[in-house]
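User: Can you recover a sequence for this backbone? Please restate the input before giving your answer.

Assistant: Of course. Working from this structure:
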């Protein structure tokens, strides 16, 4: 199953502590999400745009004679009168799955039809909780993700962080651009959200050019407040200010008051935005489904038509691998969030992108970060409120882009999605303590971006602009482990931004130039055939040559290539010569016992299939979508392994492609993919030659899989998982040759190893093990038994089952040189996503056994499998009707569910050939010339000379901007000067008053010697603290001050 995109709506933070025009709300909000595929509704996309009659003819011709009813759904929205590139097809109840497949086949047989995909629906639920001064719960996506993070404190006074500024626009210096005449005028900005009320007082009269409704409700107003907030951050002109108050706003209401939206609504709205020639779109939405082709393709179409898309990167931090689409696309500006202490917000999603897994490595995202915690913006009742989330950071950047755009509108097509993004990235301020997958290029710098755009010369650029494995922490994880001879090539994916034209290409082949010790590196590069729209990718593979086997030091070089336009460009420039400097740390080859091979090839995740969560306790997060990679949800485990002295290499190809003699252990962690028969055979040979295997498994039970089907309560449709938490039947095929098999029990609970507690969450039991292998038998709850019970009170069934085992592989007595097997039936304790308590120490102990043949001390009391007398446990069978074969790279699409013993290869695809990348052409640095040597620095852009910089109609120059900046600094300093002068005057007056009081007291004492009156109210007494006489009419606070010895002013 593939679920639709969900909104990245933010969670409100303490809102009662900042003044905003004299009033402010103090409610807090939380959002929950659920997503469904709508049954019997399909989006039929065409190869071009057609009118209503033409599309009706296409459908009628393709579906003529279909023995079930169908109709094209009428779309009542502003785009209905214009040609469209899709129809929404609804099939009748009598359309069986076979007839639905026949309808799809007929449609796809037409040259006019591009694709047929299910319609998707997203439901969003808003809840209020807690007073305004309480801690804030992190945002959750209860339909697909829910992480147990510690609360974060709202950005208020006393919270330990710098309080939010009164105006976010001042914090980012938008008022400097306002002072020189730029305010968004002439820029058309659209907000895709929950709508906006007519005549809202925070927006200038006439600036809201159009409000359109794309939902099935008959209203244009915002019943929730999120759309109002987002629009206010972009264009409010009073109280809580927006960045571009004179921009033309186009409000697209794509969510109902019941917080429901559909993919088709977005597609129609996107088409209409292109008709309206929108410049900038803010999308505070997102989801993990980068394979939702109608949506992704439409985003590409938007940017190819010159629309700048700004989108929230996601609220699923601090976990890595949680980027959301469309913000993770190369052509979109993906925005993360920081607090007002310039620290990456805990809720902000982290990279890498997971499109490229398991073959390679993800791209750099987010692109940029800006303030998104405790942000103030417009409320429904023309008040101000504070919200947090990347959906708040996104309109900050969208508003800044609108402001920048208005300052360079006169430059025409030179300003495009690529050039805007290039200026944002090149001008960003890097945060000192965050890595590239947390902050992207750094914090938004509005004024530097303006200066770059003003003198921008159409060109291509790179993101990141350099590769430096010695630059920590920014270049994590590349800087976390040195390279060495025989190590797997390290893949670095670089995004190419092409501001010269919407389509481009790399001319010829890249050239590698050896710098210092560069000859010790092996270098190959692959790249996009076509850079479109405005962008493409370059994959650099780096390894160490045999000459560097004993080298310990740094090697450098750089990759040169040329990007050229395809078709018409936006200016005179038709090509850009680019250089990517590379610096790596090389170490001598580590011993075999310290090298680990992490199997990434057999990890599958959503999308494209329905791969369920590993921890069944997490009821509201049905999907496994984080990549199961050592640099995403297993990042903390990777860090512990590196700290323990292990070297981790990631295998993105079948096990047949690796020389096992280089590695001490193979790590099989939460694998969902099947294994090729050739892999099974090779692993047997490798273990016999000394390779050890460590397995972290998960649950697999077909009855439970049916029980945890994804259920749409609105459409009453079930979606069956493609596998369990792990593909245990496939693991049993692989491990059976060593006398190891995993069972189908689903167990939950905890047990002790020595003085440590181990959380076991929805794991499986060990059903078979070598007789002399050591196993731990623990008392755990049978979670599968509980899940299978009907509603109401559910009884707990406790069972004793083996869950942890250590064994020497091979026959007994053990032949010297054979490997070892260590098995744990659960991976959740090593997975940061839904971790109850970590077990990194246990994984380290298992690895010590696997690589050094030393049984951990806590296992001394373990029984052997033979003496444990474990009763037989059923082995799991593969799920009948599973769709795994449709998403597998091992199984044939037509493969049967069960293995055919007579002809097992009928299930498998041919074993793919192992990749042999072609090395780049290379020359020595001396041949290239020192003038060609690039610098290791953040992104920079080639700019036009000052005398060629085009000026706007009012002739604003660079001097105007510099003058405005100086004026701002002087204005900011003026209150300090005034305060100092007032302080000095106060001191003078106090000194004078003290002298007068002293003189008066001497006079009174002289008079008191002549008379002895009683002490009357209001008389004077001496204050030891102030040194002068004070009246007796003190307040309580004043008395407290005197008691503390502090002066009262």
């Amino acid at each position: 199953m593939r679920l639709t995109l969900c909104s990245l709506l933010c969670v409100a933070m303490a809102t009662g502590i900042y003044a905003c025009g004299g009033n402010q709300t103090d409610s807090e909000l939380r959002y929950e999400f659920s997503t469904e595929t709508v049954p019997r509704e399909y989006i039929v996309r065409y190869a071009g745009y057609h009118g209503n009659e033409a599309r009706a003819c296409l459908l009628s011709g393709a579906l003529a004679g279909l023995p079930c009813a169908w109709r094209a759904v009428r779309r009542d929205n502003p785009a209905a009168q214009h040609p469209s590139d899709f129809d929404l097809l609804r099939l009748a109840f009598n359309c069986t799955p076979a007839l639905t497949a026949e309808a799809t086949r007929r449609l796809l047989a037409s040259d006019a039809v591009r694709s047929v995909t299910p319609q998707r629906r997203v439901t969003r639920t808003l809840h209020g909780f807690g007073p305004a001064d309480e801690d804030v719960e992190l945002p959750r996506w209860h339909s697909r993700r829910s992480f147990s993070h510690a609360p974060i404190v709202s950005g208020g006074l006393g919270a330990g962080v710098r309080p939010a500024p009164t105006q976010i626009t001042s914090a980012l210096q938008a008022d400097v651009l306002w002072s020189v005449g730029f305010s968004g005028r002439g820029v058309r900005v659209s907000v895709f959200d929950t709508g906006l009320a007519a005549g809202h007082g925070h927006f200038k009269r006439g600036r809201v050019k159009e409000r359109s409704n794309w939902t099935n409700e008959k209203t244009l107003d915002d019943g929730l407040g999120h759309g109002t907030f987002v629009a206010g951050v972009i264009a409010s002109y009073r109280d809580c200010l927006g960045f571009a108050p004179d921009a033309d706003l186009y409000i697209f209401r794509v969510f109902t008051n019941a917080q429901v939206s559909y993919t088709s609504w977005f597609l129609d709205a996107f088409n209409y935005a292109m008709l309206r020639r929108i410049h900038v779109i803010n999308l505070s939405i997102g989801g993990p489904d980068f394979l939702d082709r109608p949506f992704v393709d439409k985003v590409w179409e938007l940017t190819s038509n010159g629309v700048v898309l700004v989108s929230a990167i996601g609220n699923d931090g601090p976990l890595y691998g949680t980027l959301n689409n469309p913000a993770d696309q190369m052509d979109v500006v993906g925005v993360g969030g920081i607090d007002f202490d310039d620290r990456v917000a805990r809720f902000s999603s982290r990279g890498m992108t997971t499109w490229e897994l398991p073959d390679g490595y993800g791209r750099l995202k987010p692109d940029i970060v800006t303030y998104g915690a405790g942000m103030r913006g417009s409320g429904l009742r023309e008040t101000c409120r504070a919200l947090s989330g990347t959906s708040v950071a996104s309109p900050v950047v969208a508003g800044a882009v609108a402001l920048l755009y208005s300052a360079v509108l006169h430059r025409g097509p030179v300003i495009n999605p690529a050039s805007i993004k290039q200026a944002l990235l090149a001008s960003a301020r890097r945060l000192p303590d965050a890595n590239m997958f947390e902050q992207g290029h750094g914090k938004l710098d509005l004024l530097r971006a303006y200066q770059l755009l003003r003198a921008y010369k159409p060109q291509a650029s790179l993101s990141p602009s350099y590769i430096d494995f010695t630059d920590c922490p920014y270049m994590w994880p590349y800087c976390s482990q040195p390279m060495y001879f025989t190590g797997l090539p390290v893949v670095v994916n670089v995004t190419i931004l092409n501001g010269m034209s919407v389509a481009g290409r790399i001319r010829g082949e890249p050239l590698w130039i050896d710098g210092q010790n560069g000859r010790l590196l092996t270098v190959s590069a692959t790249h996009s055939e076509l850079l479109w729209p405005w962008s493409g990718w370059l994959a650099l593979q780096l390894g160490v040559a045999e000459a560097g086997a004993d080298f310990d030091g740094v090697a450098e070089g750089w990759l040169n290539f040329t990007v050229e336009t395809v078709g018409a460009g936006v200016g005179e420039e038709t090509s850009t010569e680019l250089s990517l400097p590379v610096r790596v740390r090389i170490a001598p080859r580590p011993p075999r016992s310290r090298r680990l091979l992490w199997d990434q090839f057999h990890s599958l995740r959503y999308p494209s299939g329905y791969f369920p969560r590993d921890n069944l306790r997490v009821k509201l997060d049905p999907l496994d979508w984080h990549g199961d990679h050592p640099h995403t949800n297993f990042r903390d485990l990777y860090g512990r392994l590196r700290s323990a002295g292990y070297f981790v290499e990631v295998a993105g190809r079948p096990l047949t492609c690796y020389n096992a003699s280089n590695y001490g252990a193979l790590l099989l962690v939460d694998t969902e993919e099947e294994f090729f028969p050739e892999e099974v055979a090779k692993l047997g040979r490798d273990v016999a030659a000394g390779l050890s295997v460590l397995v972290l498994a998960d649950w697999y039970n077909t009855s439970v899989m049916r029980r945890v089907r994804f259920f749409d309560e609105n459409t009453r449709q079930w979606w069956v998982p493609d596998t369990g938490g792990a593909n245990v039947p496939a693991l049993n095929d692989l491990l059976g040759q060593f006398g190891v098999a995993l069972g189908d029990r689903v167990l939950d609970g905890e047990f002790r190893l020595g003085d440590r507690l181990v959380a076991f969450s929805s794991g499986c039991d060990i059903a078979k093990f070598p007789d002399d292998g050591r196993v731990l038998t623990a008392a755990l709850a049978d979670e599968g038994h509980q899940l299978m019970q009907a509603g109401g009170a559910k009884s707990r069934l406790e069972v004793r089952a083996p869950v942890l085992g250590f064994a020497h592989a091979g026959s007994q007595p053990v032949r010297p040189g054979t490997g070892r097997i260590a098995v744990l039936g659960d991976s959740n304790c090593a997975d940061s996503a839904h971790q109850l308590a970590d077990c990194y120490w246990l994984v380290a102990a298992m690895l010590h056994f696997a690589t050094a043949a030393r049984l951990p001390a806590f296992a001394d009391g373990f029984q052997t499998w033979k003496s444990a007398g474990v009763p037989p446990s059923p082995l799991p069978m593969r799920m009948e009707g599973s769709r795994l074969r449709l998403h597998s790279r091992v199984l044939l699409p037509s493969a049967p569910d069960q293995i055919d013993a007579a002809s097992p290869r009928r299930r498998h695809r041919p074993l793919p050939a192992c990749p042999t990348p072609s090395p780049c052409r290379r020359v020595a640095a001396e041949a290239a010339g020192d003038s060609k040597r690039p610098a290791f620095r953040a992104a920079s852009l080639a700019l036009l000379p000052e005398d060629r910089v085009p000026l706007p109609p009012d002739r604003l120059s660079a001097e105007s901007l510099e003058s405005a900046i100086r004026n701002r600094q002087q204005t900011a300093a003026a209150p300090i000067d005034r305060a100092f002068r007032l302080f000095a005057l106060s001191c003078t007056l106090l000194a004078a008053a003290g002298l007068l009081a002293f003189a008066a007291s001497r006079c009174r004492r002289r008079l008191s010697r002549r008379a002895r009156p009683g002490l009357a109210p209001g008389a004077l007494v001496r204050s030891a603290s102030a040194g002068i006489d004070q009246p007796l009419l003190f307040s309580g606070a004043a008395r407290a001050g005197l008691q503390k010895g502090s002066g009262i002013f």
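That completes the design. The first strand starts at residue 6 and ends at 7.
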